[in-house]
Amino acid sequence: MVTLSRAGRRRSIITLVVVCQSTQGLIFGGLALFLPLIRSDLGLSFTQAGTLAAVTNLVYALMQVPSGYLADRFTPRRLFLTGLLGTNLLAALFTVLTSYEALLLNQALSGFFRALVFAPGLLLMTQQFPSGRRATAMGLYVVGGFSSNILLSSLGPLLVRPLGWQPLFVLFAAGGLLACALYWWAGAGDSPAAQGGVRVRDLPALLRHPIMWLTGVIQFARLAVAQGFTFWLPTYLVVDRGQSLAAAGLVAALGSAVTAPANFLGGYVSDRVGRPLLIIGGSLAGLTAGLTLLTYVPGMLGVLLVVALVSVFVQVYFGPLFAVPLEVLGAQRAGLISGFGNFCANLGSFAFVYALGAVKDATGSFRIGFLSLAALCLVALAATWLARPLLRHPA
Fold it and tell me: Where are the alpha helices (DSSP H) in 164-198?
């Protein structure tokens, strides 16, 4: 039996956590990429299709604080494995459902189990890094999801023609269960519960600090943009720009290929220069410009350039944003703090993934929806400015 060195064990834990987290990217990304086919096969309107994504994000959002609390109080590895198991089994079940009501229930349950993955996994990852590299760890945590989307967007349109979207979802679920089994078998990363007795009533005390609400506003905008843009981009390209599903998949792959390294780089640079709000503010300014231009640029070359611009900034501030409230309030309640931040983020995702579909149905165009996302980025930019003095004077 091979015994790993301490450094080798650390690398294996990091790799397994990233791979397990990335399986969710295949499932949610597959729903977005194959949405034109799913809508056609199941007879769904744009609003109904948007509701499928919205309901999973709503339940996911509502579970963030409970999940963060449980991750602080109990060992995060058990929650992480439970969430992965439920998410992948529900993805396989999604392929055999035909009624809209059953699909909604499936996605609501999926949101519950996905919530058990995020905060516990984030803690498992940050435990492998020193405190001065928190933003790097948090950025690396979600890189796998974008890397898997590159594979999905590149090969998915080629495979869906001969196989259909249902077998591909079963394949994604099988891969996720295999990754889950490997992590369980390795027995890696099981850490003790947080010391000091984390309590639910700690949350109101945390919420009295303005940094929680200012970063909450930015989180709301972050995932509203990230999910709204990535979920509806393939459909926008097919319906409004007249592209084939294969072409839309390649554009989505380009976006993920740009986002994956940018996500890690944002956390790394933030830790090195010690100015997370600069990374956050610069990203929001870039997103405002890109989302404003998206529906106005002529030709596919212009669209590709704008997609690349948005993809650079859409998640580059993920690590710095989650690190900021921990710098101000301390890391003793990291699960609760991160859970609240992700709760706000997923409220944004819920609202705008649904809204973009409803606006498309009402106006026949995605333009108003994307311009609304640009306006939301300006609001988040103002919140970033207001957070500056708080970061200089931690609690």
Answer: 165-186
